[in-house]
Amino acid sequence: SDTSILGVAFGVGVSTGKFSGAGSISIAGIQNKVVAEVGQSLVAGVATILTAPTVTISSTDDSDINTLAGQVNVSFKASALGAAFAYNEIDNEARAIADNATIKASNTVEITATEKANISSLSAAIGAAKESAVILSASLNFISNATEARLSSSLTEDGSSGTNTVKIKTSDTSTIESISGSAARSGESRV
Questions:
Q1: Fewer CB within 10 A of the terminal residue: the chain, N end or C end?
Q2: Could you read off the pLDDT of 90-103 as tens digits, one per residue?
Q3: Sequence-separated (6 or more) residues with CB below 8 Å from residue 46
Q4: Among 162, 122, 116, residue whose Cα is nearest residue 8
Q5: pTM of this prediction?
């Protein structure tokens, strides 16, 4: 699976009166289930047999979320209030399974499950006011993956003169890169 989300949310507020307010919210989520499975046949009495020099059962998820939440707020006379918020979540499954099968491979049997989810998020807020400015930014990011490679209740054979090698491997190299910041300027008070 190679799912990708690009989210941009931006708010602008400008006031020559008493109050300026603006905000932006970016919410993104991915929930994938990638399964490569070899197992018992659904037909009664028919066995699952794989025969090849190399047998590979593999599942890979490479999901990406890239978001920007930003806001600019200016009040020339009184107060400014602004916020930028981003929420991102990836909850995936990558599974490679051989269950109740016969695998005949003279070289290699490889069962691999790989998870490479990535979240990149930027939340930025800027505000200025003559009297008071309250400017906030926040970014919440979560990755919760299940990665499984399994060989169970199965038979592996190397054929007549093979040197069969069985490799079972899982890998999860998921990353989160997140920056959140805000700046406020006012004549009297700022947060």
A1: C
A2: 999 999 998 888 88
A3: none
A4: 122
A5: 0.82
How far is 108 from 165, CA to CA, in rounded Å? 5
Dist CA 7 CA 64 (whole Å):
11
Tokens standing for 188? 């009297």
Q: Is the pLDDT of residue 105 over 60?
A: yes
Q: Which residue has the tokens 């700046």?
A: 183
Closest CA relative to residue 65, chosen from 94, 109, 30: 30
Instruction: Spell out the SS3 assignment of 52-71.
Output: EEEEEEEEEECCEEEEEEEE
78 neighbors 128 (Cβ within 8 angstroms): no
8 Å CB contact between 137 and 73: no
Q: For 59-73, how does the pLDDT look when each residue is reduced to its tens digit (9 = 90+)?
A: 999 999 999 999 998
